[in-house]
Amino acid sequence: MFNEEYDVIVVGGGHAGAEAAAAAANMGSRTLLVTMNLQTIGQMSCNPAMGGIAKGQIVREIDALGGYSGIITDKSAIQFKMLNKSKGPAMWSPRAQNDRMRFAEEWRLALENTPNVDFYQEMVSGVIIENDKVTGVRTSLGLAIRAKAVVLTNGTFLNGLIHIGEKQLGGGRSGEKASTGITEQLVSLGFESGRMKTGTPPRVDGRSLDYSVMVPQPGDEVPEKFSYLDTQVLKVQKDCHMTHTSALVHDLLREGFDRSPMFNGSIQSIGPRYCPSIEDKINRFADKDSHQLFVEPEGWNTVEVYVNGFSTSLPEEVQFKALRSVKGFEKVKFFRPGYAIEYDYFPPTQLKHTLETKLVDNLYFAGQINGTTGYEEAASQGLMAGINAHLKIREREPFVLQRDQAYIGVLIDDLITKGTEEPYRMFTSRAEYRTLLRQDNADLRLTPKGFEIGLAKEDRVRRMEEKMIKSDSLVNFFKETSVQPKDINPILEEVDSALIRQSDKMFKVFSRPRVTMLHMLQLETVSDYVTENDMGREVMEQAEIQVKYSGYIEKEKNNADKLQRLENVKIPTGFDYSKLKSLSFEAREKLHAIRPVTIAQAARVSGVNPSDISVLLVYLGR
Which 8-state DSSP code applies to residue 51? Predict the structure, then answer.
């Protein structure tokens, strides 16, 4: 069946595997995607959404490089929101609610329409290694399939174990069997492995819910999108809703704690810190009588609903009884209960920055196998692994993104240099250069790099260049054009900003905090210039950010240089981190446990962010 040798074999069809296969194939590698179920390619295993804080930036970066996630998200979106809009642009993060079935369908269709991609449905039970170099994979039926490079993207399937109360079921996802053989083989070769945990909430019948007592959560009035290409912007959106747990709900859940695998010792692995189960939230935040629940539709036409915030592995009858006490859920019907899942992962310090393993040449890991959590984190690793597998077998220079170039670079550098003992999730606070790494400029940062390696196509470059030329032109227009007091003062008065007494450059006036592009467009000269040069929303947004935040960007670079020079400052023995309330809770916990001797060591502790290091430096008088 497989007499010819493939360039790249990708094992697993989730977000990491799909991006890896697409990247390698689009760059010219003959690629085989092997997965246990071809019907679940691109499956959203947990919530039906893409993006969010920092994650949205990653999706934009994937798109800018020439990946598919942004396009697929736009094609299957049912709602769009730009989060953190009240804060500075470094914090703006796009998020889309998606139609789960359409998302997977669009991924399948996109891959089927990608030249150089072949498909095969079967479990891979091991890799073929000769002279410390991978040469293919072996399937559960005993087939040997040869390849020059292999990318493992096994998700939660490696020896996956599902927990619902005291019941345990082997599986990588509800209704799907676990993958066996790979962990055991890799450990025998000298790899270190560990166990992690994640969880998911119940899915319920939307027809049984009373939305009239919940708070609607609509999308943005003027929605944007993810891809920099000409995908469609949503014209109609579907609402989400919000409700809350209560003290009664918490008491009902506590009744099952003695049978909770989280508390009775059945689960000993660590789950995602920033997406805790409802029982973990009740236990950790015992002073809170209520927690938010977001009621998210699974698609345009289905009645299935995802109960975001109610992730749990309690017995199914406890889940049901407690959820029926939530406002709006009094008559709820379950489609399926929530569950926790434990799975094998490989500490990512065993990888190079290309995501190639140090022990075996041409073998790459991407996604949850590296200890991350989240579709976006997985997809970005898959993209980078697929790119580097293609480059390696052609003896070309590896493609590595630096921390000041992309959130993807921050993610991979964190994994490789710090490792992780709990599921790693990206946050804006993990990046020292987040003012540079905004969601609006991912194309300017990365599309030229994607084009240079042969992934991003010419149409992307043309769009990016046009945007850059127009935004630079608009910035220069503001720098060179003056405005008269009689024209601008009415606007300044409106926003309670000091009036000008003589003609001044528009750039200086526009730099003021409360003056926006909408205000500047009230000036006829600005409006005419924008119209004559056909400048759209993206161009104007880019120009506004460049005008307002140039000083912050320069300051950020200077701060980064200072951090580098002060990395070896000693931390006093027995230092009490608990008194530094400006440190994140995670940083205080980790630093107290690990007790680093120097700032350099503290900076390498997983979960300690650049902002935490800044707090330490200030306290130490540096």
Answer: E
User: What is the distance of C-alpha 484 from the center of its chain?
Assistant: 46
CATH class assigned to 6-199+344-452: alpha beta
Rounded to whole angstroms, the Cα distance separating 414 from 531 reads: 44
Q: Give the C-alpha separation, 98 to 238, whole Å.
A: 10
Q: Which residues contact 583 (CB under 8 A, 6 or more apart)?
A: 577, 591, 612, 615, 616
DSSP 71: H
What integer pLDDT is reported at residue 83 of this predicted model? 97
Is the separation of the CB atoms in 90 and 438 below 8 Å?
Answer: yes
Q: Is 321 left (phi over 0), alpha (psi -120 to 50) or beta?
A: alpha
Give the pLDDT mean for 540-554.
Answer: 90
Rounded distance between C-alpha atoms, residue 298 and residue 261, angstroms: 28
Query: How is residue 5 annotated by DSSP?
Result: P
Identify the bridge partners of residue 8 per DSSP, sorted by sequence position. Answer: 31, 149
Domain ranges of the chain: 6-199+344-452, 458-559, 566-619
Task: Note the residue count of the chain.
Answer: 622
> Which residue, 289, 258, 235, is CA-closest to 79?
235
- Cβ-contact 112, 122 below 8 angstroms: no
- Terminal CA-CA length for the chain: 65
pTM: 0.90
For the chain, counts of helices (H) and of strands (E): 20, 22
Average pLDDT (413-441) is 91
Structure confidence at residue 562 (pLDDT): 67
Give, as one character, the DSSP assignment of residue 567: T
**Chain centroid to CA 71:** 15
Chain segment 61-110, per-residue pLDDT in tens: 999 999 999 999 999 999 999 999 999 899 999 999 999 999 999 999 99
- Tens of pLDDT, residue by residue over 26-35, are 999 999 999 9
- Tokens of residue 106, six digits: 């669009």
Domain 566-619 adopts which CATH fold?
A: DNA polymerase; domain 1 (1.10.150)
55-65 and 407-418 are packed helices; what angle lies between their axes, rounded to 10 degrees? 110
Mean of all residue pLDDT scores within the chain: 94
Cα gap 591→516, rounded to integer Å: 42
| CA–CA gap between residue 152 and residue 98 (Å, rounded) | 26
For residue 578, what are the contacts with CB-CB under 8 A and spacing of at least 6?
588, 592
Percent of the chain topping pLDDT 90: 82
Q: Strand locations in 153-239, DSSP E?
A: 161-164, 167-170, 194-200, 203-205, 215-217
Helix (H, G, I), strand (E, B) or coil at 19: helix
Task: Annotate 355-410 with DSSP letters as a single string.
Answer: SBBSSSBTEEE-SGGGTB-SHHHHHHHHHHHHHHHHHHHTTPPP----TTT-HHHH
Nearest partner of 305 among 415, 228, 211, judged by Cα = 211
3-state secondary structure of 494: helix
Task: From 327, 195, 205, 206, select the one nearest 261 (Cα to Cα).
Answer: 195
Matching CATH number, 458-559, of 3.20.20.70, 1.10.10.410, 1.10.10.1800, 3.40.50.2300: 1.10.10.1800
- How distant, in Å, are the alpha carbons of 297, 363, 378 from that of 32? 34, 15, 19
